[in-house]
């Protein structure tokens, strides 16, 4: 039973540091980390990429335990994102598809085998850029210092204003970087040491998750993201990790206008494989309050647009 980092004790520690209330249940057949979320309408439980279960029977046991926990905490619904194959078919009739929070589809690179086998999976063009990076004045360093998160956030804010997307708060990102599983990578250029790209990765016992990254115009010209991605993969291999998760791609058949189209094309230049999960579902316990919750969300989104 493979436990994703978002359903682990380490993730619960992150929630504690963020001031969240969470419940971790471990058993031989299933495991789940449920985070209690509070809204003006009422509470709900959220399980990022959970619950985790061995099979359908174990999955149903996990759901029963979750519904009991939800009632104990006056939750309107339980938001789940199971990774178990076919899990969407095992959900109760009260489950409703919600907007996916964590990626439903992702691209995963297998790091097992020898170094030569891995290099065959990497784009030759990016390998050339990587090998010549130092000659062009490009250096890569790592940091576990929360104060350094501003390098990533500054790059993300510039991208956000350009693309019209949102970013996490500085306090949230600092708290993430303070965790033992997190590493910040900084790509610097020339004598000034300007940071032209940055990336935040999380590592568990088997997988490196490439969660966040951004680059500026100079970084784009110098292929900084490509060079950094090669470094991230090689470092993960050096740590004897088994997988490199690119953290999200556009769904199969998505149009060129999909917001993840460019990212997806880049990620698929690496010889990985696609992994599909069930997506995000809400198991509704109180239909009346759930409708009020949905209405409040729509009004909130409308107000943000205004």
How would the blueprint of this fold be written?
Layout: H1 9-17, E1 21-26, E2 30-38, E3 43-47, E4 52-53, H2 56-72, E5 75-80, H3 87-90, E6 95-97, E7 105-110, H4 115-119, H5 124-131, E8 138-143, H6 149-163, H7 170-177, E9 182-189, E10 194-203, E11 207-215, H8 217-221, H9 224-238, E12 243-245, H10 261-267, E13 273-276, E14 281-284, H11 287-305
Parallel strand pairs: 3-5, 11-12
Antiparallel strand pairs: 1-2, 2-3, 2-4, 5-14, 6-14, 7-12, 7-13, 8-9, 9-10, 10-11
**What is the helix fraction of residues, given as a range?**
25-40%
Output the helix-strand order: HEEEEHEHEEHHEHHEEEHHEHEEH
- The dominant shape is globular
CATH-derived topology of the largest domain: Aminopeptidase
- What count of structural domains? 2
CATH architecture assignment name of the largest domain: 3-Layer(aba) Sandwich
* Structure classification: alpha+beta
- Termini separation: 46 Å
Largest sheet: 7 strands, mixed
The named CATH superfamily of the largest domain: Gcn5-related N-acetyltransferase (GNAT)
The total strand number stands at 14
Strand content: 25-35%
**CATH level 1 class label of the largest domain:** Alpha Beta
Overall pLDDT score: 93
What features would you highlight for this structure?
306 residues, alpha+beta, Aminopeptidase, seven-stranded mixed β-sheet, 11 helices, 14 strands, 37% helix, 26% strand, globular
Report what the structure shows.
By secondary structure, the chain is α+β, with helices and mostly antiparallel strands. The chain has 2 domains: 5-101 and 278-305, Aminopeptidase; 105-276, Aminopeptidase (3-Layer(aba) Sandwich). Helix content is 37%, strand content 26%. It contains 11 helices and 14 strands. The chain has helices at 9-17, 56-72, 87-90, 115-119, 124-131, 149-163, 170-177, 217-221, 224-238, 261-267, 287-305, and strands at residues 21-26, 30-38, 43-47, 52-53, 75-80, 95-97, 105-110, 138-143, 182-189, 194-203, 207-215, 243-245, 273-276, 281-284. The strands form 2 sheets. Strands 1, 2, 3, 4, 5, 6 and 14 form a 7-stranded mixed β-sheet that branches. A hairpin with a 3-residue loop joins strand 1 and strand 2. Helix 5 (124-131) packs across helix 9 (224-238). The radius of gyration is 20 Å and the shape is globular. The chain starts with 8 loop residues before the first helix and ends with a helix.
